[in-house]
Write a structure and sequence with these properties.
- The protein is of the alpha+beta class.
- It has 2 domains: 161 residues, no CATH class; 61 residues, no CATH class.
- The chain contains 4 helices and 13 strands.
- The strands form 2 sheets. Strands 3, 4, 5, 6, 7, 8 and 9 form a 7-stranded antiparallel beta sheet that branches. It has a 6-stranded antiparallel beta sheet with strand order 2-1-13-12-11-10, with no helix packed on it.
- A hairpin with a 2-residue loop joins strand 4 and strand 5.
- Helix 2 runs antiparallel to helix 3 and helix 2 crosses helix 4.
- The N terminus is likely disordered.
Length: 292
């Protein structure tokens, strides 16, 4: 009886192990989707540095390309790609150094603000000069909504940044990190400045389609953070930063894509077993007639 019980247990264990082996993916099975990331593209071209899984390379790095010109400068890029996940990171990024195409009312407002900063910088009573400085900021379309200088210390830092720049920098970002995993993604910022003023509200996890610039600048340029969509190939895309000039894509920074289906290779038809060759004929002896 005990021998029969052992046999039953052994048989059940063998069936269970076989079922587990059938359910487990083969060690040689290829992933069904690919993920990839790139640091920067200009006008939809370039997309470097680049990383891709499973094709590879799975990581890369470099600097912000010179082709971005006045749109962005500086910055170190790193990208990684794995199984249904990807990351792209930029550090020390400066945006929008050229402002020659700004609307006249905005350029006039900036000129007035520069003059107000000069007065503030030379004022003996900084507290008394703080109000006129903020009034000058409020006169610039869209800028007063995002910049407020409540203390003389913040005003001094802002004016020093503005007066020291020969060409105005629209924004600076310490770190821009984009990631995707499956069909979810995030964009995280640190150390954000707009027109020289710190923007702590923009630090941390950024909501989708956040605009970095005021809407009054939209006819000239838009900088969109955390733009998410599904591409034509079915992959989930998270663009850390999308820069558009005149309504056209100018550059994309820190982009990740997850879950893009790989092309399915059609199996070759099985022709079946080849027919066996016909047996060689067997000679049959027969008498040969003789004439003569």
């Amino acid at each position: 009886m005990r021998t029969r019980f052992k046999a039953i247990v052994a048989g059940a264990a063998a069936v269970t192990a076989a079922a587990l082996l059938v359910g487990m993916p083969s060690a040689n099975s290829a992933p069904q989707t690919k993920s990839y990331a790139y640091g920067a593209s200009v006008g939809g071209q370039g997309k470097q540095p680049y990383a891709e899984y499973p094709k590879g390379p799975e990581s890369g790095g470099g600097d912000v390309p010179d082709q971005l010109g006045p749109l962005a400068a500086g910055g170190v890029l790193t990208v990684t790609a794995g199984d249904d996940q990807a990351t792209a990171k930029i550090t020390n990024l400066t945006l929008g150094q050229a402002v020659a195409d700004l609307p006249p009312e905005l350029k006039d407002g900036i000129a007035n603000l520069t003059a107000a900063c000069t007065v503030f910088d030379q004022a003996g009573d900084l507290d008394a000069a703080l109000g006129p400085l903020n009034d000058a900021i409020d006169q610039i379309p869209g800028i007063g909504a995002i910049i407020d200088l409540p203390t003389t210390e913040e005003a001094s830092a802002f004016c020093n940044s503005l007066l020291d720049a020969n060409i105005l920098s629209v924004a600076k970002i310490g770190t821009l990190l984009t990631d995707c995993k499956g069909d979810t993604g995030h964009v995280t910022l640190t150390d954000v400045e707009v027109l020289g003023a710190e923007q702590p509200a923009l630090a941390g996890d950024v909501p989708k389609d956040t605009q970095l610039l005021p809407e009054e600048l939209a006819p000239v340029a838009t900088i969109t953070l955390n733009h998410q969509y599904t591409n034509d190939a079915g992959g989930f895309v998270v663009e850390g930063m999308r820069i558009e000039v005149g309504g056209q894509e100018a550059a994309v920074l820190a982009s990740t894509t997850c879950g893009e289906p790989l092309p399915v290779k059609e199996p070759k038809p099985n022709p079946g077993p080849k027919p066996a060759p016909a047996p060689a004929p067997t000679p049959v002896p027969a008498p040969v007639p003789v004439t003569g």
